[in-house]
Amino acid sequence: MDISHKLEELALSLYRIDAVKFGDFVTKSGIKTPVYFDLRVIVSYPEVMELISLLLYDHAIKESKFDHVCGVPYTALPIATLLSVKTKKSMLMRRKETKSYGTKKAIEGHYKQGEICLIIEDVITSGSSVMETVADLKKEGLKVEEAVIILDREQGGRQNLESNNVHIKSLFTMTELINILLKNNKISKQTGADVINYLKNVQAPVPVAEVDRTLLPYEKRAELTSNSIAKRLFTIMATKKTNLCLSVDLTSSTKILDLVQKVGEHVCLVKTHIDIVEDYTDNFIVQLKELAQKFNFLVLEDRKYADIGHTVSLQYSKGLYNVADWADCVTVHSLPGEGILKALNDSAHSSRGVFLLAEMSSEGNLITPDYTEATVKMAAKYPELITGFVCQKKSTFKDPSLIQLTPGVQLESSKDELGQVYNTPEKVILENGADVIVVGRGIVSAKNPEAQAVVYKDTLWKCYTKRVSGKLE
Ligand code: 5BU
Known about the structure:
Blueprint: H1 3-16, E1 20-26, E2 32-37, H2 46-61, E3 68-71, H3 77-87, E4 90-94, E5 107-108, E6 116-124, H4 128-139, E7 143-152, H5 157-163, E8 167-173, H6 174-183, H7 189-201, H8 218-224, H9 228-240, E9 244-247, H10 253-263, E10 269-272, H11 282-295, E11 298-305, H12 309-317, H13 323-326, E12 329-333, H14 339-347, E13 353-357, H15 369-379, E14 386-390, E15 403-406, E16 414-415, E17 421-422, H16 425-431, E18 436-439, H17 441-444, H18 449-469
Parallel strand pairs: 3-4, 3-6, 6-7, 7-8, 9-10, 9-18, 10-11, 11-12, 12-13, 13-14, 14-15, 15-18
Antiparallel strand pairs: 1-2, 4-5, 16-17
């Protein structure tokens, strides 16, 4: 077929069915635009859908090698379907909605690792929607080398995608489309000039290349954080060469101080449950803080606050323990909503931090993926307060300035009789993204806790250095 003739026919059809509009609009990437392309309407025009799929096939796909097609949700899905049928290649579908249950897959369809998937998209501006689909497909072990597009708005999307090794073929650039409409007197010279001028001046923001937080060394991450405790903790870890947090779950203050005296030099953080101490006195805290000073570690009170903001601010700064006075950081549940963070933000002084609980280590806990995601979002509003998350998975958050504190760790995988689940240092650091590793009974109940703390410290640090070297096999 005569491709240029068919392309002209398509351009005019798109104009006729209002898939290309001229006026004042804002794109998905937040850019003001005098021209808007909305292909959602094509489902009402089967002849236009057929023409698009024929042109994509002839112009862009015939020569390509691939095993699957995947449309970027949602507008490109019907086109991808037509192309799947035409090429007799299977289709994959990416779920766009947040997954409510852990078992729901991001990619639907049958595929094998290493197979090649071709992306179909209607319009690219920054290229970020295509990149999201590419990222999900790559997570499944699929190869993605090429995307075929109906319209390239010429605002940086092509360059962004090419720099991520996704090659682009498009039916039209915006300039080509405008020229066809001008030639056929569908738009005025002024409108055409406005659009061309706009394209020259307005480029889509380049999506920031995503850094894998777990590959950055602690000292680099110390520079990125807005929370003073995270900065100190990253720095302590880097200088003392330890990412071990001792969870000192003993009920006698003398035993706690005795143990901390022995292992203080090997840890970056000591985690307390102050309400289990049977002989609490203010002097106990004075001595604990002296050890913290001497050995250069921070103190985390694992209080897991979970009440309304007003109550939590009282629990935090009043009462027998006056936690606000001495704990460098505390653990907090997101369950009651943002008020709990507002309360702590107001009552904590500037050199304090919060670890927000995004996941738990215990078997059968009721935290869902949606809860975790909402927790991470909530934290983003309080960068100066939040030190990091208590969580179990690398994918839980991306921000390299925050710290992943992971409990449930022993040298061998196991469980206790009350549902605590233990993973190994290798698993939590190399696979699950842990930055600070909480060990309680693994050290506290050992015959020689000091020697055992050294074993943990060395093993954990080895895993961390392997991780940041990037040489994971
Ligand atoms: P263990 O002896 O290593 O099992 O102690 C783990 C500590 O971490 C203990 O103080 C718990 O209260 C704490 N913890 C946990 O184990 N799992 C979690 O998800 C959270 C805290 Br949050």
